[in-house]
C-alpha cells in the first residue's frame, strides 16, 4: 500500500494533509525518516510511525449503535440527521454505512460497518438472519392474531411474510407488548404486519440481530465497537 493512502485511511487527514505530514519528517518506516508520499509499504513486514507512535492499519470496522428515534438510517441527508452524523470524526475515514435500516421513529440495535461482504450476508433473504424487536401495540393481540403472525400475513396483495415468532410480554388494554422475531426486512414490515391483524405499532425497538444483542449499557445515540466474540457470532449468522 502507498504510504499516503495508509495514513489517510488511518485517520491522519486528506491526501493533501498527509503529504504535508510526510514532508515535515514526522513519518518513519522501520525507524528511517521518509519524505516520499508514494513510498510502498509492506504492512506485514514494515512498521510505520508518526511522531513516534505506531500506525495500525485496519481494513474493516464494526460498530454497534443504540439508534435513537428521529434519526435516519442513512449515510447522508441534506435536511435530516443521520446515524453517521452521530459518529466521532475519528470514524470518518472508514466510510461506514448502516447494515439495513430502521425506520426514523424506530430505535435500538443498528450495526454500522464498511465490510460490504458481511453486510450483504446479514441482509440476504437466503440467510434468514433473525431480528428480534420489542413491539408496543395499540390494542391487545388475540390468539388468532398471533397465529396469523406466526404463519405469515399478507402485507400487500403480492407478498406474504415468512413465519414470525411472537412472545407475549403484556397483553392488556393499558399495555400490550410483545417480542417479535422476523427473518426478513421489508419496508415498514412490522408496522404493516400489525396493520394486517387490525392493530397499530406505537413503539418499536430492535433488540438483536442474529445472536448479537443490544448492549444495555449503551444510551440512545451511543455506540461501541463489536467484541471479537460478537463479530464471530455475526459471521456465523
TrEMBL record:
Residues 1-61 form the RNA-binding S4 domain. The keyword Translocase does not apply. Keywords: Isomerase, RNA-binding. Its EC number is 5.4.99.-. GO terms for cellular component: cytosol. Gene3D superfamilies: Alpha-L RNA-binding motif (3.30.70.1560), Pseudouridine synthase I, catalytic domain, N-terminal subdomain (3.30.70.580), RNA-binding S4 domain (3.10.290.10). GO terms for biological process: enzyme-directed rRNA pseudouridine synthesis. One of its GO terms (molecular function) is RNA binding. It is an enzyme of class 5 (isomerase). SMART domains: S4. InterPro entries: PsdUridine_s_RsuA/RluB/E/F_cat (IPR042092), PsdUridine_synth_cat_dom_sf (IPR020103), PsdUridine_synth_RsuA/RluA (IPR006145), PsdUridine_synth_RsuA/RluB/E/F (IPR000748), PsdUridine_synth_RsuA/RluB_CS (IPR018496), RsuA_PseudoU_synthase (IPR050343), S4_RNA-bd (IPR002942), S4_RNA-bd_sf (IPR036986). Belongs to the pseudouridine synthase RsuA family. PANTHER family: PSEUDOURIDINE SYNTHASE, PSEUDOURIDINE SYNTHASE FAMILY PROTEIN-RELATED. This is Pseudouridine synthase. It comes from Bacillus gobiensis.
